[in-house]
Inverse folding.
């Protein structure tokens, strides 16, 4: 793979390998560009944040890190395992999606998720939970691609348009990467070598999400 | 005089300043829905083998799982938050264990009773004189608790087997009914508890009842030896405690789950308790229905008009019968006409 390809910052989806998210904690500057972009692109209601920037070890010198977190689209996804109505489906490229019309809003997927990704809007006057909402990797949902229904329930389907997820596209420092596992790994490797930090460890988020 | 005035103003100002100082502590809380505190909590404590998971471990502070509140960043986790593995454990249980156990219960328990009915037959007692053993209040409270209770159990099972039922509107409706019925049970359940708690306290003779399984392994259509039992036998007492105290635990854990009232690890624990207690409740509910409807002919009358035939009372609730006789209360409870079917 040539350097020009990964330094452009966007994945090409040439490879058939599964997709992955990666947030480089050495690059994230806590600007919230990604979560604002996501919220804006998908017209998410108040209280729903599919992607969030979190700061760990706030105030501890040298250890403070910011990180952008959303659904990691796990292989062997725990959420799909626990859903009592089996409304998840995992695409061939690894994107984990679910059917909001089947979901009963029980909340089990949230208890199973290692990343706290599932979100629940309040659905009505009783304050009961509506259908679960989470990051779609900008790949829409089970409704007809680019239909009004798909946009209303799941937001944009940028993957069908050949675009990267809007969060990664918007990331100003390119800390947040989205693309095929191979490409993202190549970028991580390249960065580690350039920084002189040797062979990069597998990110912990990856070992949880992709079992590596 | 002027000095005094200065001193006075000095004190006035300094108290003002002091008051300023000890005002409100700085509010570090943030919008948890947006800025991730909730989410970081959710990320922790997933794996069975690690106190942390996801981003906290590895990426930043290796395996420490520090708290993320701004004022106590990096401190070790405490309480239920420090428990390991509930995320992974919940995933495992919900994925592999809960639904199969519920399925086994709703198939095997009725099957066992069907076999029992075929071998030991339903018991019949003569219906000569009968006594009013339950008041109208007893009966009303029983059914006002029982109807929502059964609805809760059925809708709960619909959710457990939601995938087989296609999910969507129907199962969502079951979920809502599950919650609404809980309100009714939360009102009448405690009244039932108060009404029968005394009669349900365990007695020594309950052990004897348990050892002989209440005489239900007697062949033939009658039982002639008196069974050691008060107003409620040991089996009914077990059911009483399960459906009241167990039911209240279900209300509590269910409310936590429904309103997502607590931290993620407590939610996981609540879901595990809610399901496990569910096994006992479903199994005993089936037992209760079998005993009252099928095992003894006419036993249901006790909860319809409150009456019980003398023979049934004397044999199946022998200690209660004796107690009533000795206390001289039995005669007053006698119902005019013998009960016919
Ligand atoms: S991150 Fe959570 S919601 Fe996303 S696939 Fe993994 S378990 Fe499911
Ligand atoms: S909230 Fe919806 S998607 Fe999540 S486990 Fe329940 S039914 Fe499945």
């Amino acid at each position: 793979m040539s350097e020009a390809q990964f330094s452009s910052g966007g994945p090409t989806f040439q490879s058939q390998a599964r997709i992955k998210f990666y947030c480089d904690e050495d690059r994230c500057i806590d600007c919230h560009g990604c979560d604002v972009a996501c919220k804006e692109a998908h017209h998410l209601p108040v209280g729903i944040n599919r992607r969030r920037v979190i700061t760990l070890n706030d105030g501890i010198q040298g250890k403070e890190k910011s990180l952008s977190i959303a659904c990691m689209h796990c292989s062997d996804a725990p959420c799909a395992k626990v859903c009592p109505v089996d409304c998840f489906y995992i695409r061939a490229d690894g994107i984990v999606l679910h059917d909001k019309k089947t979901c009963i809003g029980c909340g089990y997927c949230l208890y199973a998720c290692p990343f706290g990704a599932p979100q629940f809007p309040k659905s009505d006057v009783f304050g009961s939970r509506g259908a679960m909402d989470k990051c779609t990797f900008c790949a829409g949902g089970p409704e007809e691609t680019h239909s009004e229904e798909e946009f209303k329930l799941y937001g944009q389907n940028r993957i069908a348009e050949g675009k990267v997820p809007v969060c990664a596209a918007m990331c100003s420092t390119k800390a947040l990467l989205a693309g095929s596992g191979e490409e993202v790994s190549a970028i991580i490797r390249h960065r580690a070598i350039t920084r002189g930090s040797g062979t990069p460890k597998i990110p912990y988020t990856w070992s949880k999400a992709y079992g590596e | 005089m002027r000095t005094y005035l200065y001193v006075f103003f000095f004190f006035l100002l300094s108290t003002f300043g002091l008051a300023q100082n000890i005002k409100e502590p700085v509010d570090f809380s943030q919008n948890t829905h947006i800025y991730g505190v909730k989410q970081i909590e959710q990320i922790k404590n997933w794996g069975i083998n690690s106190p942390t998971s996801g981003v906290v471990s590895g990426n930043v502070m290796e395996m420490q799982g520090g708290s993320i509140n701004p004022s106590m960043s990096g401190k070790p986790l405490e309480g239920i938050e420090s428990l390991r593995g509930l995320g992974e454990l919940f995933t495992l249980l919900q994925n592999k264990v809960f639904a199969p156990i519920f399925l086994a219960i709703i198939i095997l328990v009725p099957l066992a009773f069907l076999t029992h009915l075929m071998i030991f037959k339903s018991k019949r007692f003569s219906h000569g004189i009968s006594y009013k053993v339950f008041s109208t209040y007893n009966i009303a409270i029983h059914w006002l608790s029982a109807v929502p209770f059964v609805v809760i159990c059925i809708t709960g099972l619909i959710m457990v087997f939601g995938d087989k039922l296609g999910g969507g509107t129907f199962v969502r409706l079951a979920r809502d009914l599950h919650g609404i019925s809980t309100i009714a049970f939360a009102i009448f359940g405690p009244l039932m508890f108060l009404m029968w708690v005394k009669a349900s306290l365990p007695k020594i003779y309950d052990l004897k009842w348990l050892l002989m399984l209440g005489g239900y392994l007697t062949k033939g259509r009658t039982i002639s030896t008196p069974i050691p039992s008060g107003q409620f036998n040991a089996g009914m007492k077990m059911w009483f405690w399960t459906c009241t105290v167990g039911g209240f635990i279900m209300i509590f854990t269910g409310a936590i789950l429904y309103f997502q009232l607590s931290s993620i690890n407590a939610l996981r624990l609540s879901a595990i308790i809610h399901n496990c207690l569910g096994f006992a409740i479903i199994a005993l509910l089936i037992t209760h229905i079998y005993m009252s409807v099928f095992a003894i002919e006419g036993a249901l009358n006790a909860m319809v008009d409150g009456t019980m035939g003398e023979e049934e009372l004397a044999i199946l609730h022998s200690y209660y019968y004796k107690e009533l006789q000795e206390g001289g209360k039995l005669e007053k409870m006698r119902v005019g006409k013998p009960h016919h079917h």
